[in-house]
Amino acid sequence: MAERVALVVGAADLGEAVAHRLAADGCEPILCDPGDPGPAAARIAAARGGAEPATVRAAPADPDEFRTAVAAGLRAAGHDAVDVLVYTLLPADALLPRPLATLTEAEWHRLAEDPVRHGLTVLQVAHELLAPRRGRFVLVVPAIALEGAADLVPAATAAETLRALAKSAARRWAVDGITVNIVTPDVFAYGAEHLRGTDVDRGEAVLPGPSTARDVADAVSLLLAPAAARLTGTTLIVDGGALMTP
Were 162 and a residue from 18, 21, 92, 119 both cysteine, which residue would form a disulfide, CB within 3.0 to 4.6 Å? Predict the structure, then answer.
């Protein structure tokens, strides 16, 4: 993993944990977020006692603007391509319960359709950045993509659609030497403690303790290790053994 360049899109929570782990693995992480990724970069630097990772402030809402901003950020960091791209971006309120019958059109667009468009934008840009180095892409979406969730229909819809896009990319990009894999943590790895006792909290995990952002980062690291070179189109479920699928 040493000397590899990793672009992490989504600097909050899981993204920060992933960037921290990749830095520990010897990668050079670059944090990209629609908001300000600076605080996350500062925390990573403080924890590791080194320089702050490079940051890029870019929103994937507009493909051309995102492509331009990312390219400029990489050039500023001395790069024109990356070895790794990890996508963790999720609307901040995606895991707040909303009964399906009361969803407004605006909520559906923002929580179900916009995340898919944003993920598609990142996938399109990712191919350009990863192809020169035959790199690796990892998508992180909540495990409700696999099982559905009452009152979290927009998030589940977006997550499963993105997972399908990632698997399609895995098939298409294999000829270019790019692998694409998916990590699906349970909602508690996102810090969604307000969902305890709801439809997504079924008490089925066989391993003790809750899933954490660090667990997700460790799973991402596994998929990026040299020994995982033959893995593509794979979904790793980080939920303590609750689903055990397929």
Answer: 119
The residue type of 205 is A
SS3 81: coil
- Return the HEC string of 133-200: HCCEEEEECCCHHHHCCCCCHHHHHHHHHHHHHHHHHHHHHHHHCCEEEEEEECHHHHCCHHHCCCCC
Residue-wise pLDDT for 69-104, tens only, equals 999 999 999 999 999 999 999 999 999 999 999 999
Residue 2: is its pLDDT beyond 80?
no
Q: What is the pTM of this model?
A: 0.96
Q: Which of 19, 49, 28 is nearest to 221 (CA)?
A: 19
Chain segment 180-206, per-residue pLDDT in tens:
999 999 999 999 999 998 988 877 789
- Where does residue 124 rank: exposed (0-12), middle (13-18), buried (19+ CB within 10 A)? middle
* Tokens describing residue 65: 């603007």
